[in-house]
Amino acid sequence: MLSGAQLTTWNLGTIEPMRIPLFHVDAFTEQPFRGNPAAVCLLDSWLDDGLLQKVTRESNLPETAFAVARDGGYELRWFTPSCEVRLCGHATLAAAHILLEVVRAQPDVVRFSTISSGMLTVRRGAGYLLMDFPAITARPCSAPDELRRALGNRAVILEVLEGDDTYFVVLDSPDAVGSFRPDFSLLEKLHPFVVTITARAVDVDFVSRYFAPSYGVPEDPVTGSTHCGLAPYWAQRLGKSQLHARQLSERGGDLWCEVAGDRVLLKGKTVVTLQGTLSI
Q1: What is the rounded distance in angstroms from the CA atom of residue 126 to the CA atom of residue 37?
Q2: Which of 12, 45, 221, 232 is geometrically suited to a Cys-Cys bond with 36, CB 3.0 to 4.6 A?
Q3: Is the domain covering 139-261 a CATH 3.90.25.10 domain?
Q4: Rg of the chain on CA atoms, in Å
Q5: What is the pTM of this model?
Q6: pLDDT tens digits, residue range 138-172?
Q7: Residue pair 233/161 in contact by the 8 Å Cβ criterion
Q8: Cα–Cα distance, 269 to 217 (Å, whole number)
Q9: Per the residue annotation, which of 16, 30, 58, 63 is the catalytic one?
């Protein structure tokens, strides 16, 4: 079994590097090089925030998850190449896969304690992992000028909502979502808000795309956290609590969502593409 980060030790007058188990995992897919890639680092104890940020930039993936064992579960934090974030679904799924399926630190359930999103639970299913996240309530709002300009005149906007520093923009068709070409310079001006565009679909219940350029992620391939707001919205509109969602990024990915009161259950698959050791 892999251990966590090892403390720096002296050896023959030299300092041996700290060695941290590092994994790259593609989340919300069962095919390598699809879905959303995340790095996962298992630590014995928390490192300085500046060092965590440097590790994230070295990984050069949309998100890096850092986990520290504590009280029978794990403390969990997420970083983009630019900053720490409050919630990340795909990196949580990736971290759970490593703990449940690779190092087998937990039998069937792993619980993550987080600073900003409370307790998150991930369970092993039959060929998938099931995450239990807090639901996001998105309320109708007026779209700021930068958002309307970023969407352009061709986009037919049915509704705009906001929740948890996210603008949820409902468009008239899945084709409009898939063909959208964002103006990242305008979207960046919306900080701290990010933008999700979505539409009802035919082969799945709804589709979406997600943009967060001010956080160092121009377009996220597959975004678990934004479905905490999308799933309740579409559950109400479609009159069903279980939904199949697809994110129409270049890599693409599928999620299965269930709205259960003030929680959203997100089901997804994962693939490990890299396993090694980071030396600091």
Answers
A1: 22
A2: 221
A3: no
A4: 19
A5: 0.86
A6: 999 999 999 999 988 778 999 999 999 999 999 99
A7: yes
A8: 22
A9: 63
